[in-house]
Amino acid sequence: AAGVIQSPRHLIKEKRETATLKCYPIPRHDTVYWYQQGPGQDPQFLISFYEKMQSDKGSIPDRFSAQQFSDYHSELNMSSLELGDSALYFCASSPRGAGGLQETQYFGPGTRLLVL
Amino acid sequence: GESVGLHLPTLSVQEGDNSIINCAYSNSASDYFIWYKQESGKGPQFIIDIRSNMDKRQGQRVTVLLNKTVKHLSLQIAATQPGDSAVYFCAENLSYNTDKLIFGTGTRLQVFP
């Protein structure tokens, strides 16, 4: 079965540089979610999108922005990178639940970002 | 509040034994719960989920139990196999108010032959 695709899988950047992470959801999934996972930590919710509109927002720094496109893929843009941004970034996708009911979020393989 | 897994508890079991992984969730209003398995360097993999109107759900070799009274969730794995070795996370969601999954502290499961 098709899974969530993320690119790139690995990324090395210098401090103060910018990075763009891409996410391609499972076919027919219209909702995407972004999570950040630091070393030895649990994933932390950043932001989500449904039908190209921001659906929910978590602990996403102001230096980060994201969007969802008409083909449902999403991009996470990260600017003025800091050492502390080094982490695994996961995208997840799901269909939108009826009546606001949460559907299972299926995670991609992640992008490992290292900021030097 | 949210939990951050700074210290990862570990469960060691022998191959073929049953495993029970426990999780205390944080919000009494949460009504959707998921167990994920995460292998090193990979994304969380869905195992099983349960909604708050149920107290037990079974899958293939796995069972999730939900005790809303004490805000406790458990994952039972029958006949544990070496391939089950991974970090297991429970996650909760408030469903109607937010997309956000709140992950609990992971538990590392080690399976010995």
Topology overview:
The complex is a heterodimer of chains A (116) and B (113).
Chain A (H helix, E strand, L loop, with lengths): L4 E3 L2 E4 L5 E6 L6 E7 L6 E7 L2 E5 L6 E5 L5 E5 L8 E8 L11 E2 L3 E5 L1
Parallel strand pairs in A: 2-11
Antiparallel strand pairs in A: 1-3, 3-8, 4-5, 4-9, 5-6, 7-8, 9-10, 9-11
Chain B lengths: L9 E5 L4 E6 L7 E7 L6 E7 L4 E3 L3 E6 L4 E6 L8 E8 L8 E2 L3 E6 L1
Parallel strand pairs in B: 1-10
Antiparallel strand pairs in B: 2-7, 3-4, 3-8, 5-6, 6-7, 8-9, 8-10
Descriptive overview:
- The complex is a heterodimer of chains A (116) and B (113).
- By secondary structure, chain A is mainly beta.
- Chain A is 0% helix and 49% strand.
- Chain A is built from no helices and 11 strands.
- In chain A, a hairpin with a 6-residue loop joins strand 4 and strand 5.
- Chain B has 113 residues and is mostly beta strands.
- Chain B is built from no helices and 10 strands.
- Chain B is globular, with a radius of gyration of 14 Å.
- The chains are: A mainly beta (116), B mainly beta (113).
- At the A-B interface, strand 4, strand 5 and strand 10 of A face strand 3, strand 4 and strand 9 of B.
- From the N-terminal CA to the C-terminal CA of chain B, the straight-line distance is 38 Å
Q: Uncertain regions of chain B: pLDDT < 50 for 5+ in a row? A: 1-6
Label the overall shape of chain A: globular
Share of residues in strands of chain A:
over 45%
Mean pLDDT of chain B: 90
Number of strands of chain A: 11
Shape of chain B: globular
Biggest sheet record of chain A:
7 strands, mixed
